């Protein structure tokens, strides 16, 4: 029986490096969106939505909450891409770009002043501009083994393994 002692680093990165990068990025994004909201309010932009003011700290709290959900989704996506995509980093960035653009749709449709809409959209873009590149840097730029068997899977499919386990070919005891 053969034991594989190390994995191909281009294929398996694990979640620890993504978490070590993603969690501080989420915290930084929370601070950044709070700062953007505070600057917008100081510049006279209304933070009212449906007649209720959005608290400045609410921007940071919501950024952190949804940023953590985003990091969890990014972990699943990033780990899947690092296994099956030929270009995991590029695929991750394109996918998150599309998702970021989709996150702007509710802001675009909100019944708020144009300046408030622009501020809401800006906070989405600020958070994404911090979190997405931080996570993308942890993914391999290319993966020459995408879609192929892992070393363990390859070993199991090897003719040598099948020959050794074929009972008709074993020497008598």
What would you report as the Rg, rounded to the nearest angstrom?
24 Å
Class derived from helix and strand content: mainly alpha
Give the overall shape, derived from the CA principal axes.
elongated
The CA-CA distance between the termini, in Å, is 20 Å
- State the share of residues found in helices, binned by percent: 55-70%
Strand order of the largest sheet: 1-2
> Counting H and I runs of at least 4 residues, what is the number of helices?
7
- How many domains, as an integer? 1
Give the uncertain stretches in residue-range form: 1-12, 149-158
Mean pLDDT across all amino acids: 80
Order of helices and strands: HEEHHHHHH
Strand elements, count: 2
Question: Strand fraction band?
Answer: under 5%
How is the main sheet built?
2 strands, antiparallel
Brief synopsis:
By secondary structure, the chain is an all-alpha fold.
What does this molecule look like?
This protein has helices at 16-42, 56-84, 88-103, 105-109, 114-136, 151-157, 159-165; strands at 48-49, 52-53. The protein has one domain. It is elongated and about 85 Å long. The protein contains 7 helices and 2 strands, in the order H-E-E-H-H-H-H-H-H. By secondary structure, the protein is mostly helical. Residues 1-12 and 149-158 have low confidence and may be disordered. The chain has a two-stranded antiparallel ribbon with strand order 1-2. The two termini are 20 Å apart. Helix content is 66%, strand content 2%. Strand 1 (48-49) and strand 2 (52-53) form a beta hairpin.
